[in-house]
Design brief:
This protein has 16 helices and 13 strands. By secondary structure, it is an alpha/beta fold. It binds pyridoxal-5'-phosphate (PLP).
């Protein structure tokens, strides 16, 4: 018999499928709003000027070689990355309570964090479960299933308000058994663009403490959301300050435009230096068996940027350039729909949502009509990547959206 007879053919990844369809389309005004990567005003990928500068410096550095990094990564990178997310004055860092490991971008941080929990979290006799927002980044389910943790949903998005179902969310936190693991998007929730307010975060943290829940914080968009690194880290820092048990998955894909370089980190915050030492030792063992050691190039770039004050300032400007372009697109789309086209519906959510994505609130049929009739590619749930819009195509998009919702 044939060797792989029982292997079923897997369906293609829906986002990659969408991109392939877009590429094949020969229509001049076609738009790709599926892609989760930043594009400039000419629809082109953008290499950050600070990354170009860092690359130039690395190329000239004769002392660099291609030896293996330590198992837990480039120490100058992980130390600076921890400060970036937790704050340079973080007591947790000062008290050596943070175990940081360089990972294969945010996906790798999610995986290593999930694997660590699967092995070492105090599950007791309970089934291994993780609570995920409904909806969430599609990869979350698969990442946890891979390490035998069952994903379950908590209410998050309310289609009626195109906003947060705060009561449903808090209700789920209160009703879950004590010490449950909840995954939270630290900022710029993917796919909805809907985040809790600071007051809501405070309530959420209180319930975490009361129920002794564990927060699995996924932070893929620090700085990219509001344009301000500290602002986007507020929820994470607040949870740490309050003493919620947690870990943080950090990605430099979006905020440094280093998608393919796979630069990220996992930070586990413990209550003591001793615990942090033990945690780090086990993370190191897991990492060794998974990837031996992480890649050098991207970590060197980010390390240069984070550890050099001038380059750090340059980076902040680059981040603001990306975030502000996206915020401008939100404002312009809102203006076109409400003031120029008088499109039926309340489009306030377009400007209230944050980050790369916007949930437009349109139906799967309307999304399909945008693809079929207007050559505008987006996922069936009505999510659009704001980065796909620019000064050249936004009018065509607004007019097409207006047509499908009328
Ligand atoms: N987590 C969320 C919520 C994301 O949206 C993404 C990227 O889209 C990631 C993690 C990880 O991305 P990467 O592995 O490219 O850092």
């Amino acid at each position: 018999a044939e060797q792989w007879q029982s292997v079923p053919l897997a369906p293609p990844d829906s986002i990659f499928k969408l991109t392939a369809a877009y590429k094949e389309d020969t229509f001049g005004k076609k738009i790709n709003l599926g892609v989760g990567a930043y594009r400039d005003d000419n629809s082109k990928p953008w290499v950050l000027p600070v990354v170009k500068e860092a690359t130039r410096i690395l190329l000239q550095d004769e002392s660099l070689d291609h030896e293996y990094l330590p198992i837990t990564g480039l120490p100058e990178f992980t130390a600076a990355a921890a400060k970036l997310i937790l704050g340079s004055d973080s007591p947790a860092i000062a008290e050596n309570r943070v175990s940081s490991v360089q990972t294969i971008s945010g996906t790798g941080a999610n995986h290593l964090g999930a694997l660590f929990l699967s092995r070492f979290y105090q599950w007791g006799s309970a089934e291994k479960k993780v609570w995920l927002s409904n909806p969430t980044w599609a990869n979350h389910q698969a990442i946890f299933k891979n390490v035998d943790i069952a994903p379950v949903d908590y209410p998050y998005y309310d289609p009626k308000t195109i906003g947060l179902d705060f009561e449903g969310f808090v209700g789920a936190l209160k009703n879950a058994p004590e010490r449950s693991v909840f995954l939270l998007h630290a900022c710029a929730h993917n796919p909805t663009g809907v985040d809790p307010t600071p007051e809501q975060w405070a309530t959420i943290a209180d319930v975490f403490l009361a129920k002794k829940h564990f927060a699995f914080l996924d932070c893929a968009y620090q700085g990219f959301a509001s344009g301000d690194l500290d602002n986007d880290a507020r929820a994470v820092r607040f949870f740490v300050e309050k003493g919620v048990s947690l870990l943080i998955c950090q990605s430099f894909a979006k905020n440094a435009g280093l998608y393919g370089e796979r630069v990220g980190a996992l930070h586990v915050v413990s209550t003591s230096k001793e615990a942090a030492t033990r945690v780090k030792s086990q993370l190191s063992v897991l990492q060794r068996s998974e990837i031996s050691n992480p890649p050098t190039h991207g970590a060197r770039i980010v390390s240069l940027i984070l550890n050099n004050p001038n380059m750090f300032e340059m980076w902040k400007r680059d981040i603001a350039t990306m975030a502000n372009r996206i915020i401008d697109m939100r404002k312009e789309l809102f203006r076109l729909l409400t003031e120029e086209l008088h499109t039926p519906g309340d489009w306030k959510h377009i400007v209230n949502q944050i980050g790369m994505f916007s949930f437009t609130g349109i139906t799967p049929a309307q999304s399909k009509a945008l693809i079929d009739d207007a050559h505008i590619y987006l996922t069936a749930n009505g999510r659009i990547s704001m980065a796909g819009l620019n000064s050249h195509n936004i009018k065509y998009f607004a007019e097409s959206l207006d047509r499908v919702v009328r």
